[in-house]
Amino acid sequence: MPKFMDVHHGMAGITAEQLMEAHNADLAIEKDENVHFESAWADPEAGVVYCLSDAPSAEAVQRIHERAGHRADEVHPVPLSV
Amino acid sequence: MPKFMDVHHGMAGITAEQLMEAHNADLAIEKDENVHFESAWADPEAGVVYCLSDAPSAEAVQRIHERAGHRADEVHPVPLSV
Prior knowledge:
- Chains A, B: This is SCO4226 family nickel-binding protein.
- Chains A, B: It comes from Streptomyces galbus.
- The structure is a homodimer.
- By secondary structure, the first copy, chain A, is α+β, with helices and mostly antiparallel strands.
- Chain A has one domain: ORF SCO4226, nickel-binding ferredoxin-like monomer (Alpha-Beta Plaits).
- Chain A has helices at residues 16-29, 58-67; strands spanning 3-8, 36-43, 48-54, 74-77, 80-81.
- Chain A has a 4-stranded antiparallel sheet, covered by helices on one side.
- In chain A, a hairpin with a 4-residue loop joins strand 2 (36-43) and strand 3 (48-54).
- The longest helix of chain A is centred in the first third of the chain and has 14 residues, at 16-29.
- Strand 2 (36-43) of chain A pairs antiparallel with strand 5 of chain B.
């Protein structure tokens, strides 16, 4: 399954609890699109969140994020990893 | 140890071999700054590389990347993760 890194801006001040809630909202519906959100990392000061997922397409990743209430600003296929 | 996500732009066309070489160049010297580069993901089409590390500071991450020949464009502390 292809991997994707998506990026959310404008998240300044995000808390650990809010990150967990947002991630859980994705996990609750991700199976509808055969997506799996593996990890997410947040920089609350710059307001950036990175999410790593396995998914059939960037569009599938975005559809889950949109339905969960947090559209990504960028969704990058990352076919290479080490 | 704090976690960091750093971002490199302008990497369009990067290959799996080049990503591995760059990562290995970091690993070879990372102990000098008590940094550990855990993973890296590349989008060769958009030319973006994301690196996840454990490090004492953003400056330590950048010093290793610079010495390895690939300065990061952004280094974000990511104190929150899920």
